[in-house]
Amino acid sequence: MLAEHGRVDALANIAGVVNMISEDSVVGLTEEAWDQVIGTDLKGVWLGMQAVISSMIDNGGGRIVNISSMAALRGLPNLASYSAAKGGVVGLTKQAAYEYGPHNVLINAIAPGTIDTPILADITDEMRQANANAHIVRRLGLPSEIASMVAYLMREGDFLTGEIYPVDGGWAAKGNF
């Protein structure tokens, strides 16, 4: 990326997977499943930031938006590895914002509610409706709604860093915490 374009001004770390290998409770989770989810959802964010921050500093600053999850802010049934990884994204975002904010590298995270992505492809209609009903707006979020918030944080907010922004259709406000 840097060699081809010479600089990176913005990075969105959006990769995310859920465990499809084993049960995903703290006791039932396998090490292989843990490593896969942590490796993608948390290590991937760290590697992405590590790859661009020095260049951003050299170029006078930049913007990074990491995708966490509302699952990072509470426990959810059978999502131990995902919740842990996305919780790590929250901590890593805050730490990196603290370290690199003085260099005008502004780093924030978005914590989506349930978004209608391929990760939900195999859930039942009943599960889909239950997820929709957890939100005040009574529907699943759209990827474009998360993209809009990413774009906002990339363009605006010169005084915004180290924050976690829920984009959750009112899930937290509904009292799901």
UniProtKB/TrEMBL annotation:
Gene Ontology MF terms: oxidoreductase activity
Class of this enzyme: oxidoreductase
EC number: 1.1.1.-
Pfam families assigned to the protein according to its UniProt record, in alphabetical order: adh_short_C2 (PF13561)
The UniProt record lists the keyword Oxidoreductase: yes
SUPFAM superfamilies: NAD(P)-binding Rossmann-fold domains
Keywords: Oxidoreductase
Record's keyword annotation contains Phosphoprotein: no
Recorded family membership: Belongs to the short-chain dehydrogenases/reductases (SDR) family.
Protein name: SDR family NAD(P)-dependent oxidoreductase
Natural source organism: Gordonia phosphorivorans
